[in-house]
Write a structure and sequence with these properties.
about 240 residues; alpha/beta; 6-stranded parallel β-sheet; 8 helices
């Protein structure tokens, strides 16, 4: 089935930047009578599958909403597990990123993360900087409202003219194109304080599939749906 789906994708009309709100790990675990942590670990499989699929078909940039600024409100044990899982991922995936020519970057207030993880992010980002096949952007400690507030403060302080273009240069994503396609898993129909400025003209795709079950097939379905749409950006 995957092969058939990939053949339906028009490589000339690929979304160059896909952003994904990864949701449903906890519900996936609950349905199986397992602790939420099992769902978070199972979600890593989907992370790897989506990255691999994007690289294979030629998507240039992938942003994954990995940890929001609001996620700090979760139980301390769950936060500790998520931070440990992130640290483990950064350590294990460096070789894979290098072999597949992928540059890792982050968006968000990384200074709010544990110092160990900050150092790991800096190291992996530095070591993969020359990689040019694809950019993997992890949104960590990310909150879009605060991002916009900080961008406004930065723009005012710079004394540059207040324009959309100049404001964009103070966002976390200043070096990235805006997403062409935003995907949210788990059936929730909301944006959850994610890239509120950047997705002004993004195509939105909502799926009931829980994140640990989100496969290459599901990603291809989203891209095929995207390619059926006509993007007018306000024009006729």
């Amino acid at each position: 089935m995957l092969k058939d789906l990939i053949e339906k994708i028009d490589r000339n009309r690929l979304p160059q930047h896909i952003a994904i709100i990864m949701d449903g790990n906890g519900r996936w675990a609950k349905k199986r009578g397992l602790p939420r942590t099992f769902g978070h670990r199972a979600g890593i499989k989907s992370v790897r599958a989506v990255i691999e699929c994007c690289r294979e078909i030629g998507v240039k940039c992938l942003t994954l909403y990995a940890f929001s600024a609001e996620n700090w409100q979760r139980p301390r044990t769950e936060i500790f597990f998520l931070m440990s899982l992130l640290s483990e991922y950064l350590k294990k995936e460096l070789k894979e990123l290098q072999e597949n020519n992928i540059h890792l970057i982050t968006s968000g207030d990384v200074s709010g993360l544990p110092e160990k993880i900050q150092k790991q992010i800096e190291e992996v980002s530095c070591l993969t900087r020359a990689n040019s096949k694809m950019t993997l952007n992890l949104a960590l400690n990310y909150g879009s409202k605060q991002e916009i507030v900080n961008a406004i403060k930065g723009l005012v302080k710079s004394k540059k003219e207040i324009t959309e273009k100049n404001l964009s240069q103070f966002l976390y994503t200043k070096d990235l194109p805006d997403p062409d396609l935003l995907i949210r898993t788990s059936g929730e129909l909301r944006i959850s304080n994610f890239m509120l400025w950047q997705i002004a003209y993004s195509e939105l795709y909502f799926t009931p599939v829980l994140w640990p079950d989100f496969s290459k097939d599901e990603l291809c379905k989203a891209i095929i749906d995207y390619q059926k749409r006509e993007r007018r950006f306000g024009a006729l």
